[in-house]
Fold this protein.
Amino acid sequence: MSNMILLGTRKGTVILDYKNSTWYPRPIEHAGIPICYATRDPRDGTLWASLDHGHWGPKLSRSRDGGATWEDVLSLKYPKGARYIVKVLPTPDFDPLAPAGQPEYADATVFKIWNLAFGTAAQPGRLYAGTIPGGLFVSDDGGDNWALNRPLWDHESRGGDLFAGDATSENRWFGTPASIDYGVFEPGIHSIVVDPRNPEHIHVAVSSAGVLETTDGGRTWAGRNRGLLNDYMPNPEAEWGHDPHFVTGCAGQPDHLWQQNHCGVFYSDDGAKSWRKVSQPDAGVHFGFPIAVDAQDGCTAWVVPAQSDMARMAIGGGLCVARTTDGGQTWQSFRKGLPQEHAYDIVLRHGLDVAGDRLCFGSSTGNVYLSEDRGETWQCLGNNFPPVYSVRFG
Amino acid sequence: MPTVQMTQHLYRFFPVLENRTIRVPAGSVAEVLHALNEIAPGFIDYVLDESGALRRHVNLSVNDTLVIDRKNLSDHVQDDGTVYIFQALSGG
């Protein structure tokens, strides 16, 4: 079981260490800088933080000595010629059925490095990063150099190869509200799931497009959105335009994938070939952002339900965590140790993690809770952290 | 040679630039920034994006005039000029 928790927060990276039955937070690192994701590479122990500087641009920071010292990693950049079709934030009179006008193009720059993932033990140095605006970057040398995955960037669902010229197909990826802070309305890759059995097999999730899969190491990609249902488009079963909030997979049963989507909780036991909605709105399990799955049992998952979707706050002023152990057929809510009145927390998409029997989540209001018994009871690790963007066991 | 002054916020990331008079050869703003990057490697990534344009929340002026060409940074810096680099106000 992990004895380290990394918090990516609005005001820096907080690392908590477990010693003598107590969790101790270290002094904050990257003080004052928003950290949208912080994680530890299980292969070599390198710590990573994604800096979301307000003025100085997104950057990665890396520590190879357990957090004692950190260094900038400045090499993640879009190559010259990378362009995207500009999306415009829909206005109240937006008509999704209106014919598309002439596309407008923009040169790509990194707005946000939203997520990091690691290759398998057989691929030392292989890292993945997902960005706004919708780029998957790959490194094979521990992050010293990064390359944009062109087949995904050039995918026909985004208009084709815009390095070569104008769009050859329609752009079906929508923007994410998470991009509005950067003055744009563009998609973002927030979930990257590498199959431990076969590192050539990867799923990524995009807000707001859906899930894509490669089985050949990123040379080709295909949408994997069958069974997803959206509530905000004329065709709920459209191939694209879905809004996964987070997608994760079971390490021990990699065909079991889970998705907390804008429009419910979805589960796949066939490697995302098909999804089925396993929300239970009567039990509050429907809207939310994060989802975690057990490392061994692909039928067991946890969510932190939230009030959908106009409010985006705890349901009824009380926090709960819901768990299923039967692939979403039934859900059980746990509240012991969590505030049950005057709680307005929302837990963001990277704000929940599981390691063995331990779970931890952090909220937008700076509360961090830990469970040692698979989510059934909770203890508070602190109420005065900055707003929490990510929680990951080290 | 032109001098460069900047917000002290940048000294946190580039302490080599603190407590010194920074002088670089005259030229375009782009050339001035590349010269700064020689003194403080990585500096340019803080003020420019990968297309070479000034980041959205960064302001740069030559003397008391904000640069006009934020994309290519072609504005010229005279030998006796001063370049100021500071963060754009983006919150109250």
Remarks:
- The two ends of chain A are 10 Å apart (CA to CA).
- The interface with chain B takes residues 53-57, 59, 72, 74, 77-78, 80, 107, 109-110, 182-183 of chain A (CB under 8 Å).
- Chain A has a mean pLDDT of 95.
- Chain A has one domain: 4-89+103-393.
